[in-house]
Amino acid sequence: MSMRRSGQGNTTMPANTMAMVLRVCTILGLVVVVGRVAQLQLAPSEDLQGFISARTTVQPLPAVRGDLLDRRGRVLATTRAGFRVVVDPTTVIQGRNTSVEQVIVALSDALDLPADQVGARIMGALIENSKRAAEASNAQGSGSSIASLSPTNTTATKVVQIRYLPIGETITQQQADAIQSLNLPGVSLEHRPERVQTAPDIAGSLVGKVGYEDRSTRRVGKIGAEMQFQSQLEGTDGSLTYVRDSQGRPLWVQRGRWIDSNRGSDVRLSIDLELQRIVHEELAQGVERADAAGGRAIMLDPNTGEVLAMVDVLRETPDAIEFPWDDDAEDAERTRYTPLDPMPRYRLVSADPAREMEAALAHNRCVRDVYEPGSTFKPFVWTLAKSEGLLPDDEVIKLETNYFIAPDKRRLQDVTYQPEMTWVDVLKYSSNIGMSIASDRVPQDKLRKTVDALRFGHKTGLGFPGESPGIVTPESRWSVFTQTSVGMGYEIAVTPVQMVRAFSIFARAGDNAGTLPEVRFTAAGRDGRPGLTGDEIMVERVFPSGVVRQAIEPMRAVAERMDTRTRREDPTIPVARYSMFGKSGTANIPGAAPEGKRRPQGTPGYFKTQYNTSFIAAVPAQDPRVVILVVIDDPGPRLIAAKRHFGAWSAGPVVRRVVERAMPYLGVEADLSPDETQTAMSSATRTD
Amino acid sequence: MFIKLMVLILVVGSSGVGVLSVRQSRLQAAHETAETRLRIRKLENRTSELKAAIAERATPARVVSALEASKQYTPAVHNRATLSKSFAPISEHATTDGQTPEVWFLDDGTQVLILRGTHEQGRQP
To answer: Per CATH, which fold does A273-687 belong to?
Structure first.
């Protein structure tokens, strides 16, 4: 027994050792396995890393862009979900159960496109791929085969093949679902949101356009409000990461790997779509009636500074000829201008090819193109002189003739000769002679500083890309001649938006009269900025409110005269039911060369028979709700021959028509009864 | 020993099955969440299509032209309208609170009654 025990003892020792070794090996093996698993999970090798990452797909979830709304919440621009069919020709030919012909027929049915059109596109790409593969094979000294079209073929991978082939236009979600259910090989859907404008014909240039950012798939505002409010409109993109199988089919979405996109904020503009429509209709008709080359109109709320409507119309004038500008190039030949008699109608309003292509791309002339305001500028100089105490109420200007030699030795003449005028009459009859005297009394630096305080020569801050600051003669070149010219609205170039903002100082309520509003393109009080009710709005006083009110009465007479004369001539103009005060202006178009051109020698400073005419008004006269400016660019020769081109004749009736349609829409009670209108007409007729 | 072994196998096996079923449930839930989100996105896409279509058809110009085409449209405020001097009450149109309608006439003799604030009060004129 003991021997056996001893023998057993001798034989059990190696067994225990072996068991121990086995245990240790097993544990070591398990540690190695666990370690390897951990290494594969946590720090895989580069080769494996590529393989692992290829098993997941990151699909971007693009954010939906916010809507652009008008001040009443009507949609101006919104985003419509859209898709585009994209074909990978190299995958199409690999379809096991579906032939290329079947894919073509199925796609043409689903997209409602002719089969030959879809076929030509796909087959064309296949042939091109085949050609490229053959060229690559020939280059390597081997023949081409159809197998080389496979993306997995090593020869073909060196060839750049067409693998992205968009088919047809943008399709809807329903169409996309139908195509997806067909499960066609090599056919995929690309998310392609479409920006839709609801009224491109009347508000296209204000809303603007969205386009792809350079070298990316990000869509950004390229022009107009889309560009201006890009940061608010764009949302935050999301992403979806899913694990897929060897066939590329989605297996599952890992926890926390679906990051939803955040929609962009809506932006409520100050524009009112109905007012925009009214202004657009009336301006287009006014331009047509005046046989003009174009027209611009702006409606502004003087109390909040909101732009309610902004319209810019261009019209073809077949009778106009090109002015012989010289090229601006340094080596270009300088020519000499030979005046023609009679002076022809030159094409002075630049064409806008982008506008013809798409309304959204239009060059917005209301903020980008300047004009000389002419007599519409007189109220500012008149009010300045009045506020300085330079125009006594009891002073009477007596003129024996309708000619006057201004301080700068210029000979001036009035359109309406008045032998005797008070200062109120000077503004009422828009006397150039009177304004020359008034501006001569104002110190030069005072007038220049007032022009600056009215923010002429500065951008309005409306935020439109390409806005012009206007042109104001610098202090160093401000002369007696400038002083007289500016008094009559010449030698200063303004944009319509600058002009309508400056005129608001006459229309603002209460103590705000004489202050300049902060002009804005978003609805007041709707974007966290409470408009004029907030303390953060800074207003700059230009004139005392009391003096500003003195200018209203003569300007009211101007509007009444305009109404009377135009209705006498054209009874279709609506009977005035809303009082207004305003001022007309007529200025010759300056001989300034367009961009890229130069004036030939001897070019006149102004085109003698071509004008910018305008009328600016505030309505209703007692408590203005809106300020409207209408500029008619280059009215036709027939009107000029009949002396009906002046602002009161060409632009004034457009303002009146707009007022009579816009005020009821804004819920403003008519403040003129037919009797009052009749009385006003009779008195105006007598003064005529 | 055998019983112990069987119990151990059963415990380990059922734990494994439990863990796997929890994992499967989680995957199922994730899958359904993903499908729901996809459905939501599709509905949002459809909504955006409808919204754009409504917005395009509901501009002031389109509304006016549609109403004019229906030949049942008389603008309450019109360029040709003149305010009647007489605000004669018209009993059949008088409102319950005794508000007198404002009477306007168009050149063609069309009579237009205007009741102030009817929208706020939820009544039809």
So the answer is: Beta-lactamase (3.40.710)
